[in-house]
Structure to design on (309 residues):
């Protein structure tokens, strides 16, 4: 297989690779942003242990 | 599943849907990646060169799925927004909110890849014809939906306002779809229609593999996003304290 011919795309390299490049960048970017959100949430969630009082409230709400 | 009857309404409650959605993300995300690789392989190594357009036609494999996803996701978003409004179902409104960014991305991709294809095929990056213009309007509808929702502080009011916009905007989807029949256009006609199939089987295979990949990707990403939206909106709920990230 002739790779340099493949990458030239018959003279349409800019258009073809541009299309797939922008697709890849945007979709990967969306996934990365969601993962970043997950990390932020985990960081915020970690230092708050559930107090016994809030547990009590929770169980009372279940009864009502 | 030991229990034969599944109570579907159970999963309309964010507290029950949240862990289920978390488990489903890899079930859609992993096959999405596999189909994406397969589609790229078939598209670039199996599908032959087009006799008219040369290699530039290979943009089709991603352009058509992106355009379809933009339209499908809009209709889906409007349905969820409508259900959320009509039945006062919080989760449905959250789904609509979760779909919007992904739909906007695919619509943007349809416009950009279309432009990159239009330049070699038509000699111009952009023309103000019916299909291109109505697709641009679709992207503005997504952006409008997102900014309208984020501009209203009361979430349920934001959901209702978004639902009105989404439902009114649905009229644009059939306009995009039929635009190539209703008006003279530079844009080529439907690639796939009932009476004609204008592609070599390997070309169609590449396109449908990438379409499948885009669908699965969208489901995975929307599920991930809806979990963050549930987290944000249900912060005060007691179950949230014990839910895993």
């Amino acid at each position: 297989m002739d790779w340099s011919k493949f990458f030239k795309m018959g003279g349409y390299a800019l258009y073809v690779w541009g299309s797939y490049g922008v697709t890849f960048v945007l979709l990967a970017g969306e996934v990365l942003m969601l993962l970043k959100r997950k990390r932020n949430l985990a960081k915020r969630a970690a230092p708050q242990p559930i107090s016994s009082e809030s547990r009590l409230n929770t169980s009372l709400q279940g009864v009502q | 599943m030991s229990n034969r009857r599944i109570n579907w309404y159970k999963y309309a409650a964010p507290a029950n849907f949240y862990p289920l959605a978390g488990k489903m993300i890899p079930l859609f995300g992993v096959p999405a990646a596999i189909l994406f690789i397969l589609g790229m392989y078939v598209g670039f190594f199996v599908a032959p060169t087009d006799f008219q357009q040369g290699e530039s036609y290979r943009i089709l494999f991603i352009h058509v799925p992106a355009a379809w996803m933009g339209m499908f996701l809009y209709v889906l978003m409007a349905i969820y927004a409508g259900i959320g409004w009509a039945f006062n179902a919080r989760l449905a409104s959250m789904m609509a909110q979760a779909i919007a960014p992904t739909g906007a991305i695919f619509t943007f991709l349809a416009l950009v890849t279309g432009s990159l294809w239009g330049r070699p095929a038509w000699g111009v990056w952009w023309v103000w014809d019916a299909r291109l213009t109505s697709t641009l309007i679709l992207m503005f509808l997504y952006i409008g939906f997102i900014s309208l929702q984020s501009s209203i502080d009361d979430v349920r009011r934001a959901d209702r306002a978004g639902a009105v916009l989404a439902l009114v905007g649905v009229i644009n989807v059939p306009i995009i779809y039929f635009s190539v029949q209703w008006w003279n256009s530079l844009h080529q006609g439907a690639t796939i229609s009932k009476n004609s199939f204008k592609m070599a089987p390997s070309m169609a295979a590449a396109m449908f593999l990438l379409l499948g990949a885009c669908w699965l990707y969208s489901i995975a990403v929307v599920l991930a996003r809806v979990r963050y939206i549930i987290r944000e909106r249900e912060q005060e709920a007691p179950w949230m304290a014990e839910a895993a990230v």
Notes: The helical segments of chain A are 3-8, 13-45, 52-63. Chain A has a mean pLDDT of 79. The radius of gyration of chain A is 25 Å. The first helix of chain A runs from residue 3 to 8.
